[in-house]
Amino acid sequence: MRIATWNVNSVKQRLDHLLSWLQERQPDIVCLQETKCVDEAFPREPIEAAGYNVAVHGQKTFNGVALLSRRPFDEVTPGLPGEPEDDHARFLEGVVSTEGGGAVRIACLYLPNGNPVGTEKYPYKLRWMDRLAAYAADRLALEEPFVMAGDYNVLPAARDVPNPDAWSSDALFLPQTRDKFAGLTALGFTDAIRAGSDAAGLYTFWDYQAGCWQKNMGLRIDHLLLSPQAADRLAAAGIDKHVRGWDKPSDHVPVWCDLALEAA
DNA sequence: ATGCCCCCGGTTCGGGGA
């Protein structure tokens, strides 16, 4: 089973890229972030025609997440628990049955950026990370294949950014941000990309500005975190960097992993 | 130190992203 995550930066602007990439990569489950449209405006039909069930949790203008799955969803639940007044569409959980009679649980997430530090945006990010850790601990107790995938807006380590000193006071790289991410993974998750390589330069995002793509000044901020029951079945993982070179691209590229769930 | 570029809503500019 191939599971992917991609911040598309507007699903309507990126529909042709999405359909091309689905055809090329053939994922079974996809987590989308920054869909930037209300549920009624989500381009369901062309995605369903490509063979996917669609679950959406959107809002006007900003944020918005969606799950695509070749197999039907057993459950879909929008929203991260813990702060009822939080109205950002940043989280969507789904459960999909596998061929072997088991199931995989997927959380699609768009973690707050947190900049500029010094405003309410950064404590909101930190609270969101605390809420995510509480949710994750609850789900890990189920001891099932479980994947939390999305745009974490976190640089886990210095090797995930070309110039870490320049990012030392940024919300994506502050020690408190990294500590919370480390605490989350320490609950028992495996970073799918890091399971296969500790290399620097495995970026998933390149800013539109300042020629970042041309200079390969990227960031690794999109992650797939695997529960032990998922990590035991990890067969491959990758970053579809070439998608950033397409015409009018998202600033993020797809990240994916293969889990041998059918064999379980 | 700030903006570069891109997207949205809604109109020709401001908010947001990272």
UniProtKB/TrEMBL annotation:
Gene name for this UniProt entry: xth
PROSITE patterns cross-referenced by the UniProt entry: AP_NUCLEASE_F1_1, AP_NUCLEASE_F1_3, AP_NUCLEASE_F1_4
Enzyme category, top tier: hydrolase
Residue span(s) of domain Endonuclease/exonuclease/phosphatase: 4-252
Pfam families assigned: Exo_endo_phos
Cofactor annotation: Mg(2+); Mn(2+)
Annotated source species: Rhodoplanes tepidamans
Keywords: Hydrolase, Magnesium, Metal-binding
InterPro entries registered for this protein in UniProt: AP_endonuc_1, AP_endonuclease_F1_BS, AP_endonuclease_F1_CS, Endo/exonu/phosph_ase_sf, Endo/exonuclease/phosphatase, ExoIII-like
Enzyme Commission numbers on file: 3.1.11.2
Gene Ontology molecular function terms on file: double-stranded DNA 3'-5' DNA exonuclease activity
UniProt entry tagged with the keyword Magnesium: yes
UniProt protein name: Exodeoxyribonuclease III
Gene3D superfamilies registered for this protein in UniProt: Endonuclease/exonuclease/phosphatase
Family: Belongs to the DNA repair enzymes AP/ExoA family.
